[in-house]
Amino acid sequence: MQRFFLFFKSFFVRTSSMTMTIDEFLKTSVVDLVGLESAPESVKREFLVKASQMTLERIVGRIDGILPEAKKEEFYRVFGDEGNDDDMQKFIKENVPNFEEIVGEETARVKVDLVKAAEELKAAA
Question: Fewest CB atoms less than 10 Å from the CB: which of 23, 32, 92, 112?
Fold first, then answer.
């Protein structure tokens, strides 16, 4: 799973009282959106690791959900210990043509969920 995370890492970098546009929301760091901008760096790092893991799990789930059964085995083999970067890129290009769209949608969904959770915690405090 770690290799899978490293493969997707490049795609994540792309990659108040005022209402934020969708574009602004997507471009704003999730750390800022949940109010952790002044938190210690170690807290920010840990939060980002967990948010990245959530996003990765959702991306994998989406890909798993659209692949035919015959391709799922290949997917997990290629993104497991047997595949290399070229194999991974080839698989995505051939089997998940809307990959960047999936990454964008799932990244946005995680951000929305994290912001909602942060707002609920603030309201309960």
Answer: 23
Predicted confidence (pLDDT) per residue in 83-99, tens digit: 788 999 999 999 999 99
User: Which phi and psi angles does 35 have, rounded to 5°?
Assistant: 85, 25
pLDDT digits (tens, 9 = 90+) for 19-63: 566 667 667 788 888 888 898 999 988 988 899 899 999 999 999
Q: What angle do CA 100, 64, 27 make, to 5 degrees?
A: 30
HSE (CB half, 13 Å, CA atoms) of 59? 28
pTM for the full predicted model? 0.74
Cα separations in angstroms, 40 against 23, 28, 45, 49, 54: 27, 19, 9, 15, 21
Q: What angle do CA 6, 9, 10 make, to 5 degrees?
A: 120
Looking at residue 10, what is its pLDDT? 40
Measure the N-to-C terminal CA separation of the chain; round to a whole number of Å: 36
CA distance 46 to 52: 10
Is residue 107 exposed (0-12), middle (13-18) or buried (19+ Cβ within 10 Å)?
buried
